[in-house]
Amino acid sequence: QVQLVESGGGLVQAGGSLRLSCVSSGRAFSGYAMGWFRQAPGKEREFVAAIIWSGTRTRYADSVKGRFSISRDNDKNTVALQMNSLGVGGPAVYYCAGGVHPDGLGGGGFKSWGQGTQVTVSS
């Protein structure tokens, strides 16, 4: 069974940066795509970014393109989300997600979830 543990969330000022990290255990990390999703209070969870098993292909939500960057380290079983130029917004919980295929980047291809880490951007 996959275990995913996120870290790095917190309070940041608008325009600032934050780096989220996720450690995976319980299965062969390098064999699966990984992703990040987020959920604001009262809203559905939405796709943010994903990366295939090798790290050579990524996909982003339009709202974060050019500002966020996803990366992975298969030796350390970690996936990171670098978030730059953060806009003002209420709290959102960011979830690390484990894919069911090595190269599936569609939102429906993620079935394992961490507990989430909260990010709040202040003005």
Q: Kindly estimate the percentage of residues that lie in beta strands according to DSSP.
A: over 45%
**Helix-strand makeup class:** mainly beta
Q: What sequence of helices (H) and strands (E) makes up the elements?
A: EEEEEEEEEEE
Q: Which spans of ≥5 residues are poorly predicted at pLDDT below 50?
A: none
Description:
This protein is an all-beta fold and 123 residues long. Helix content is 0%, strand content 53%. The strands form 2 sheets. Strands 2, 4, 5, 6, 9, 10 and 11 form a 7-stranded mixed β-sheet that branches. The N and C termini lie far apart (40 Å).
Features:
123 residues; mainly beta; seven-stranded mixed sheet; four-stranded antiparallel sheet; 11 strands
SSE blueprint:
Elements: E1 3-7, E2 10-13, E3 18-25, E4 34-39, E5 46-51, E6 58-60, E7 68-73, E8 78-83, E9 89-99, E10 110-113, E11 117-122
Parallel strand pairs: 2-11
Antiparallel strand pairs: 1-3, 3-8, 4-5, 4-9, 5-6, 7-8, 9-10, 9-11
